[in-house]
Design brief:
By secondary structure, this protein is mainly β. It has four helices and 60 strands. Strands 13, 14, 27, 28, 30, 35, 36, 37 and 39 form a nine-stranded antiparallel beta sheet that branches. Strands 15, 17, 18, 20, 23 and 26 form a six-stranded antiparallel beta sheet that branches. Strand 57 and strand 58 form a beta hairpin. Helix 1 (about 190-195) runs antiparallel to helix 2 (about 215-225). The chain is extended. The model is unreliable at about 10-25, about 125-130, about 180-340, about 690-695 and about 955-960 (pLDDT under 50).
Length: about 950
């Protein structure tokens, strides 16, 4: 392979192959340039040094030509300043290269690194010009191997016995190089700075003043000294169109402040902003290009860390999503911004779960034959279509519609519509035809008479698989709707049809909201989607926030909805802390009042509040502990408090729901903010403390009924006699306790433990276990003994662990209390001493004990987590009373702990996930999410001082990035 290495010269002005010992300041962050000019956007990496699989995959990878910059350190102090020399390398891979990935016969997947590297031995020469073409190399090494002066290009994850490397196994690790700020006091000339930029093809983020131009270095230098260049040759102002020669010349020999530059550029079209001029003004200079006495010198006297800084924080925008954020404002007015979880639903984006066939609103392209429009009885829009039949008669309603393709729906998906009848006893036929031709020769047909069960409105729902077929109709071309009704000799009846659509499993929100009570549909209001409760029957009809059939409960929060009454004059509103219709709070409009009620309808407080049909009103409730504040708004921005009170009837967490009783009501702009549990204020009403409700967060301080600490041997609590601390072999904290002479004892007689109870005082049965770790350093002893006593050798319980169950290294041991040998009327409630030792007939095994606990027989995490391998224990910090989770099994393989709150394996799509880790061993630890099973998940991990992103997909191994 052909590579070349260059160094930034002593003045930080240009790259050369010699004189590297006096480098003063780095100009560049680690990363790759875009010498190949293949980057598609300012943030893109392009092909420089890209690692790819072969076109026909084998055990090799390709490394594209390109340039990387990375900081290195010599092992010597050549320049005599008292520290090892540091400088920036410019590594140039002159042509595509090929590397072979080593075989993997380890039995488990391995991760290899592809790096640019310059060995230490090649960095000791003061003048390496003669060897600059071969001192660097591209290498492949096992992840974590010791290699200095490297830049990581990619990682390759291969399974045991792999035969080929595909692109799916390669994770790109490259970053785009960034140009750092010019160091304070630099006296380089403009020409020297241009030389330093030679070869850098960075983005707008990286200070590429030559981005997307064909200007040469010489032309650029000329432009900066007053020589004219065209806008095509040199667009110094990135993304500014219509730049004239005179505008460019204004930038030459700049000797002005930022304000003066703004004035000089006044009139440039389009208007020049700081974003357009960030090469000049967004660097943060207090005196932009303030020249020193010598006009040939740039003399920048103040500079930021980097020329390009982010324009602002990333903004999360979602119409239907769950977002999490932590934004604590110490101001009472801002309490509603102190959110942990935000659920935002404007009911957009559900189009794949339903499709309108006809809304009977005489829309463009529709032709109606039979009947007339009814503007008083309707379900959707402003009207429905009515047929009036006399005694013993038949009538047909034909609607020719623009072609509707509903072939994406099939089987159990349903054709749904509303039918109103005035006299149920007088009807004897009701059929629907959906045709692909006119006249009706090719159609799907269904007799739905059995679904009309009452006078008034009836909801008809027909699975597509239940339609019979005449001719050769096709679901991808429905152009005619035909409804036929008949009456019997009993008398006349009116028939009204409205709102015909096809829906996935009758839930048009894909179970984001439940439709378990009443009929709920998404309707289109002039292009704006709203969630409409269309069932006018009496009784509350609730649609619960389900988030895809999850059980999600909230104790405190702020719940807002926009509500529009379409028809009716009964109750429309929202519910919270909902566990059943008879256990919840609700706030609702009656038409003339706003009411706050509980359970099945007991009114707690009400105020006068008149609402009108087809008018939007926002309803908001902030519920925190016993505090309830209900507010309204006419614009969704300015809210007025209507009810502020306290109530302690419902103190448990519950779901939130939309509800309506007897109306047709539309809901949208739903926002649920799960807030902090409590706000604590001082006497001046200043917010001084916020205790957050972290949702599914866990500090592992609620497991006191599953364990009890007996001994951890830590220095701040240890009172052992005999033996010695073992700071090399331990499971938790910083040490274990070792006995290292045959038949030697170690004991702690300063205990006062009640082992009939767990940490929180809950009773412990005799089937619960005493658990502990034992490390055997040299050879297996005859036995290991643990003794708990009230009085040594008089009242005690002892367990003997025989050699057959032991191995060198760590052994995890659990013995039920009922399996201990008890003498002298020993009482588990009065343990004064713990003693352990081993017996051996030969040499000195050296045995270390650690983490002795009382543990519930079915484990400490059964109620809330699933354990996938490993020994997961709760440890307690005695001094600080903190509890923390420890995975203490160091055997090979992944150990996973999966949240399954309340016995349910909850699914989360969007979230903020964080945790604190203290890893004592060298292998990876981190956060698992999107977990499907032990073979399919994502992981953010920390290993060997590196943070990486890992995906595991069944059958594909896993890759890190």
């Amino acid at each position: 392979m052909a590579t070349r290495v260059s160094y930034l010269n002593a003045l930080n002005t240009y790259w050369q192959d010699i004189d590297i010992k006096n480098v003063e300041r780095d100009f560049f962050t680690d990363g790759v340039a875009d010498v190949s000019k293949t980057a598609l956007s300012p943030e893109d990496l392009g092909e420089d040094l890209q690692v790819l699989a072969q076109a026909v995959p084998d055990k090799t990878v390709r490394i594209k030509a390109g340039v990387a910059y990375f900081a290195v350190q010599r092992s010597t102090d050549v320049d005599g300043d008292g520290t090892n020399d540091e400088f920036v390398l410019r590594f140039h891979n002159l042509e595509d290269a090929v590397l072979t990935i080593p075989d993997n016969t380890s039995g488990s997947p391995k991760i290899y690194e592809i790096c640019c590297s310059i060995p230490d031995a090649n960095m000791d020469a003061e003048d390496i010009n003669s060897t600059a073409s071969n001192i660097g190399s591209l290498i492949v090494q096992l992840q974590g191997s010791d290699l200095q002066n490297k830049y990581l290009l990619a990682t390759v994850t291969v399974e045991n016995g792999f035969t080929q490397v595909t692109n799916a196994k390669i994770t790109d690790q490259r970053k785009r190089v960034q140009f750092k700020a010019i160091p304070e006091g630099l006296t380089a000339s403009i020409d020297e700075i241009n030389l330093a930029l030679d070869g850098i093809l960075a983005s707008a983020e990286d200070l590429n003043i030559l981005e997307n131009t064909t200007v040469t270095k010489e032309e650029f230098n000329n432009a900066l000294t007053g020589i004219e260049s065209s806008a095509d040759e040199l667009n110094l102002l990135h993304d500014v169109a219509g730049l004239e020669k005179t505008d460019l010349e204004k930038l030459a020999d700049v000797d002005a402040s930022a304000d003066e530059i703004d004035q000089a550029l006044e009139g440039v079209s389009p208007d020049v902003t700081a974003a357009n001029l960030n090469i000049l003004t967004a660097g943060g200079f207090t005196n932009l290009h303030k020249h020193a006495a010598d006009p040939l010198l740039s003399g920048i006297t103040e500079s930021p860390t980097n020329f390009y800084l982010s324009s602002g924080d990333i903004e999360a925008i979602a119409e239907k999503s769950i977002m999490t954020r932590f934004s604590y404002e110490e101001d009472a007015i801002q309490e509603d911004s102190q959110n942990i979880e935000v659920v935002n639903d404007a009911f957009q984006g559900y189009e794949s779960y339903y499709k309108a066939i006809t809304n009977f609103d005489n829309e463009a392209g529709e032709t109606y034959t039979g009947g007339s429009f009814d503007t008083s009885e309707y379900k959707q829009g402003t009207q429905a279509r009515k047929l009036s039949l006399t005694t013993d008669s038949t009538a047909t309603l034909l609607i020719d519609i623009p072609s509707k393709n509903i072939s994406a729906f099939s089987g159990s998906d349903k054709i749904e519509f509303w039918v109103y009848v005035s006299a149920l006893a007088n009807i004897d036929m009701a059929t629907l035809q959906l045709g692909s031709t006119t006249p009706s020769t090719n159609y799907f047909q269904n007799n739905f008479l059995s679904q009309i069960t009452q006078n008034g409105w009836n909801r008809v729902s027909i699975p597509m698989s239940s339609f019979s077929q005449n001719g050769a109709p096709n679901w991808n071309n429905i152009i005619r709707v035909r409804l036929e009704f008949s009456t019997n000799t009993g008398g006349a009846s009116d028939f009204i049809a409205d709102s015909m659509r096809v829906a996935k499993d009758a839930n048009t929100t894909n179970a984001f909201w439940s439709n378990s009570e009443g009929y709920w549909e998404i309707h289109d209001f002039s292009g704006l989607k709203r969630y409409v409760k269309t069932d006018e029957a009496s009784g509350d009809k609730n649609s619960i926030l389900s988030l895809g059939n999850q059980s999600r409960n909230y104790l405190n929060g702020i719940f807002t909805a926009r509500i529009r009454r379409l028809q009716g004059s009964s109750n429309s509103g929202i519910k919270w802390r909902y566990t059943s219709p008879s256990s919840c709070y609700h706030a609702y409009f009656t038409g003339t009042e706003l009411k706050f009620a509980k359970n099945a309808g007991t009114v707690i407080q009400s105020v006068a509040y008149v609402i009108s049909a087809n008018t939007d009103y926002w309803l908001r409730v902030a519920f925190n502990g016993t505090s309830i504040v209900i507010s309204t708004s006419l614009d969704g921005i300015t809210f007025t408090t209507q009810i502020s009170t306290t109530d302690s009837s419902i103190t448990t967490a519950g779901q939130v729901a939309l509800f309506d009783n007897g109306n047709i009501t539309a809901f949208d702009n739903i926002v649920l903010q799960q807030t902090s549990v409590t706000y604590e204020r001082d006497v001046s009403d200043r917010l001084i403390k916020i205790e957050e409700n972290t949702g599914e967060g866990d500090r592992f301080d609620g497991f006191g009924s599953f364990f009890k600490r007996i001994a951890t041997f830590e220095t701040d609590e240890n009172t052992m006699i005999g033996g010695a601390a073992d700071a090399l072999n331990y499971k938790t904290g910083t040490q274990g306790w070792k006995v290292s002479a045959a038949s030697s004892y170690a004991y702690d007689n300063a205990l006062n433990l009640d082992l009939t109870k767990f940490e929180d005082g809950i009773s412990s049965a005799n089937t619960d276990v005493i658990a502990f770790w034992v490390y055997i350093a040299t050879e297996i002893p005859t036995s290991i003994r643990l003794e708990l006593s009230e009085t040594q050798d008089v009242k005690e319980a002892e367990t003997v662990i025989n050699a057959a169950s032991l191995a060198l290294g760590w052994n995890y041991i659990e013995v039920a209390k009922s399996a201990f040998s008890v003498i002298g009327g020993f009482d588990w409630s009065s343990v004064k001493q713990a003693r352990f030792w081993y017996t051996h007939g030969n040499n000195n095994p050296q045995v270390t004990f650690d983490s002795i606990q009382l543990v519930k027989s079915n484990g400490i995490l059964t109620s809330k987590y699933d354990v996938e391998n490993g020994k997961w224990l709760i440890e307690k910090d005695i001094e600080n009373s903190n509890q923390y989770l420890v995975q203490s099994d160091e055997s090979v393989g992944e150990k996973l702990l999966v949240l399954k709150t309340d016995g349910e394996k909850n699914l989360f799509q969007n979230f903020t996930y964080r945790g604190a880790f203290n890893a004592r061993r060298g292998n990876a630890n981190g956060l698992i999410f999107k977990y499907q099973d032990s073979s399919n998940f994502l992981r953010l991990q920390c290993k060997d001082g590196r943070i990486s992103f890992v995906n595991r997909v069944s059958g594909n191994g896993h890759g890190a990035g």
